[in-house]
Amino acid sequence: MRSLLLFLSLGAGLAAAQSASDSTEGYWQDSARRIFFSADAPPDYVYGGWTELDPAQTYPSAKEIRHTARGYELIDLLYDDEERITVQRANERHIDFVRTNRFSGCATSHACELVKGDRLLCALETRCPKAGAEQVVWRGEERYARRTLCERDGKRQAQGIPVRCR
After folding, report:
1. Smallest Cα–Cα separation from 93: which of 19, 26, 24?
2. What tens digit of pLDDT does each residue of 33-47 get?
3. What is the CATH number of the domain that holds 109?
4. What does residue 48 show for φ and ψ, rounded to 5 degrees?
5. For 45, 62, 130, 151, which has the most beta carbons within 10 A of its beta carbon?
6. How far apart are CA 6 and CA 4, in angstroms?
7. 10 in any annotated domain
8. Among the listed residues 163, 154, 13, 161, the one whose alpha carbon sits nearest the alpha carbon of residue 81
């Protein structure tokens, strides 16, 4: 009987681990990005190439996505209260959210899709208020890799809050 309970318990744990890898829930660290448009780019800038990012970077764009009783929530570990996060739509495989800077009013829309269980691909667009209207200032994509844990590692600096992922 004990061996049957142990077997069932291990099976349930394996199923939970499997389902977590098939979900957006968990910790994510940016691993690559590409730019399609930037208002500040020099005229000869070449758009569209992926830039791989160092996994040991001090200021990764690291996120935690949680499923709660009220739906999904996202915590961007790089920022504190100067950025407001609003989840627009989410399910196990997809999350759309907007990150708005409280001071500048610039808002970055993210549309993220789970790819192969351990990768998240996000399309981003940043709009800023300018002369009474919104202007697109940046468009691109970011790839995120699943991490076991990401945690803040220090106080806010000019680049954001240092984060360590593993």
Report:
1. 24
2. 999 999 999 999 999
3. 2.40.128
4. 100, -15
5. 62
6. 5
7. no
8. 161
Paired residues of 62 in beta bridges = 29
Q: How far apart are CA 18 and CA 145, in angstroms?
A: 16
Q: Is 65 in contact with 24 (CB distance < 8 Å)?
A: yes
Domain that holds residue 89: 22-165
Residue given tokens 């758009």 in the structure block: 47
- C-beta neighbour count of 120 within 10 angstroms: 27
Q: What is the pLDDT of residues 79-105, one digit of tens each?
A: 999 999 999 999 999 999 999 999 999
Question: Are the C-beta atoms of 95 and 72 separated by less than 8 Å?
Answer: yes
**Which stretches of the chain are assigned E, i.e. beta strand?**
26-38, 51-52, 62-68, 71-76, 83-91, 94-101, 107-115, 119-130, 133-147, 150-152, 163-165
User: What is the number of domains present in the chain?
Assistant: 1
| Residues 148, 132 contacting (CB under 8 angstroms) | no
The answer to whether 120 and 113 have CB atoms below 8 angstroms apart is yes
